[in-house]
Amino acid sequence: MAGEGILSHPLIFTVSVLIISCLVVHILRRKLDKNRFKRRYHPIGGTVFNQLLNFNRVHHYMTDLARKHKTYRLLGPFRNEVYTADPVNVEYMLKTNFENYRKGEYNYINLRDLLGDGIFAVDGDKWRQQRKLSSYEFSTKVLRDFSSVVFKNNAAKLADIVSESAKSNQPMDVQDLFMKSTLDSIFKVAFGIELDCMCGTNEESRRFSDAFDDASAKTLWRYVDVLWKMKKLLNVGSEASLKQNIKQIDDFVYKLINIKIELMRNTKDYYSIKKDDILSRFLQVTQTDQKYLRDIILNFVIAGKDTTAAALSWFIYMLCKYPTIQEKVAEEVREATKSTESITNMADFAAGISEEALDKMNYLHAAITETLRLYPSVPVDAKICHADDIWPDGYSIRKGDMVCYLPYAMGRMKFLWGDDAEEYKPERWLNEDGIFLQDSPFKFTAFQAGPRICLGKEFAYRQMKTFSAVLLSCFTFKLADENKPVNYRTMINLHIDGGLQVIALRR
């Protein structure tokens, strides 16, 4: 019979058993909850095993649920998960009652093999220490000036590579180029190291980058794989592969740290020398072990490489889909930089882009922001509820619940953005005079909000605008295959699955 055929499939049978187990646990919890008649809980959207079945399209799945319920629950065998696209709840979680919603032990255990005790995985004193030091570093003029030079240099290198592809009219994976370029940038700015990953001269850095991407995907898989701890104990499957990825990552990072330590030992008066990179300045103000430095470095990498490269990749994709907007951005850049002729020297053009010129690029700023609204680099963010609570919408949250806000889904909600929510319209960010207008960070959540708001927001915008200004002044971009579907890869950051093949034409 057909029913017997379905149940004989081992994955479907296992998931069916687990879903039934979730429902049984939920019923038992309700019976044991003495205050159940006084409390109201958000509507049930499904179980965590529905996420498993929809893993490769999980953000579509959660968006569909958010359209039915602004906030909903997924039942799980160990804890419920609450997902919200309601800015009122987001503000309460990220700001009003911030202390009650932490990364928590659950997130820490899932993330620690990759991110360790870095800022994105911890709470308490470790988070405050790194936040304080990082906040100071990102606010210094030294870092702003240094990073601007790095961004311009790497944008010019990238433009030279794109120019070679344009000459041969060959497709290129622009996401791969952005990943290499932003990796070069973050290692130079954060750690004072020249990788030159873009030009293909550093095979080690390429292996590191690939291992980091794979580790990110396998780390996110832990959130839907209830057997991951057993797999880790037995060193099989995805956990065995993750272990190999982590070893490659660690070998690379510890080598970098040792290079820095040797430099300190062999350079006279090292601490009195003016240092521009973040790692040197961390070493100057804090004595810490190599494991902690490793964790800090990897958290900077995921913040400075993946998020920016993913955003730029989706930005080029949207400009390919909307060529009129691409031309409008290019026209604004040329006007702001006073470029009237064809650009022949990429390095000179990049070096000449001033902060004042970047500030005038309101339409470019709006187009990048509109891309982040629809394709946020971090599509979902999770916390753990520390104590029983009631949200502003009147529904209860239990201690131990995982609570998440949904940047990807929120960017597609008509109740937030209007009937044209799923359309790409940079104009929604501009006033009548064409000046960029900020929106509430609890509605546009691409950079988080509250005490954990992204410290590198302006840093990221400067890099994205610099790269975009150089590339769009010199080239027109088209998709290599207009009919090929473009989807995301389910991992911590929203990468384009399989990269983005484009063709560049010289202007």
Automatic annotation (TrEMBL):
Belongs to the cytochrome P450 family. One of its GO terms (molecular function) is monooxygenase activity. It comes from the Eukaryota. The chain crosses the membrane at residues 6-28. Its cofactor is heme. Gene3D superfamilies: Cytochrome P450. Pfam families: p450. It comes from Erythroxylum novogranatense. Heme binds at residue 454. This is Cytochrome P450. InterPro entries: Cyt_P450, Cyt_P450_E_grp-I, Cyt_P450_sf. Keywords: Heme, Iron, Membrane, Metal-binding, Monooxygenase, Oxidoreductase, Transmembrane, Transmembrane helix.
